[in-house]
Amino acid sequence: MHYPKIVWGGGVAVSAILMAAGVIVAQQSRPLSPRGSSEAHVLGTWTTARKQGGTAGGSTYENGKWLEIGYGRPLKRGRNLFGSGADYGQSLLAGAPLWRAGANVSTILKNEVPLTIAGTTVPPGEYTVFIDLKEGNWTFILSRWPAQQTYDPNNKAALWGAYNYTPDKDVVRTKMTLETLAHSHEQLSWEFVDVTAKGGSLAIAWDRTQGLVPFTF
């Protein structure tokens, strides 16, 4: 790391020291797993507006409903993420019964429109998302467990990550389709893919593995 040259006279030295300290603090405070989100805007209609709209061509998208997934975005940083055999997924679970499929605060799905997943209708609302990791066999789980926004060991009514998860609040459990990707993805990502007026898929990608679960409207 290169620090500003300190000239010992007047306020110059003090300013240089403060600049160097600011650089160090900024580097130390940057989160290892930044918070992220992915959205889809669905079931609306495009209309030509009389006034200039917010999109190319001046059209507007009206009466759309939002789908959003919010999650912590850990990075690979050279790790063997999933492992194999009896150790498969254990480093990601870190003692929890399921994978939070992200980092820190539990992964959260918000849907403004009913979704049908594996034959189950998921009403509009907010749900926590987990994955039961088995080698070659991932199970997607939506739960009514609320998420703690900051860790509180005394809060038994909400979860931090997947710790203390129990299945009694499950809404959906379904197998995910696993794919091997052509490139290694450094940072974990959730995305809405193949979205049409009939539905789409929710996809998680990290390293060379992608897991998908389809939904319909």
Describe the structure.
There is one protein chain. By secondary structure, this protein is mainly beta. Helices cover 10% and strands 43% of the residues. The chain has one domain (36-216). It contains two helices and twelve strands, in the order H-E-E-E-E-H-E-E-E-E-E-E-E-E. The strands form four sheets. The chain has a six-stranded antiparallel beta sheet with strand order 1-4-5-8-9-10, with no helix packed on it. A two-stranded antiparallel ribbon has the order 2-3. Strands 6-7 form a two-stranded antiparallel ribbon. Strand 6 and strand 7 form a beta hairpin. The model is unreliable at 1-21 (pLDDT under 50).
Defining key terms:
mainly beta; 2 helices; disordered N terminus; 217 residues; globular; 10% helix; two-stranded antiparallel ribbon
Order of helices and strands: HEEEEHEEEEEEEE
Number of helices: 2
How are the strands of the biggest sheet laid out side by side?
1-4-5-8-9-10
Structural class: mainly beta
| Residue runs with pLDDT of under 50 for 5 or more positions | 1-21
In whole angstroms, how far apart are the ends?
53 Å
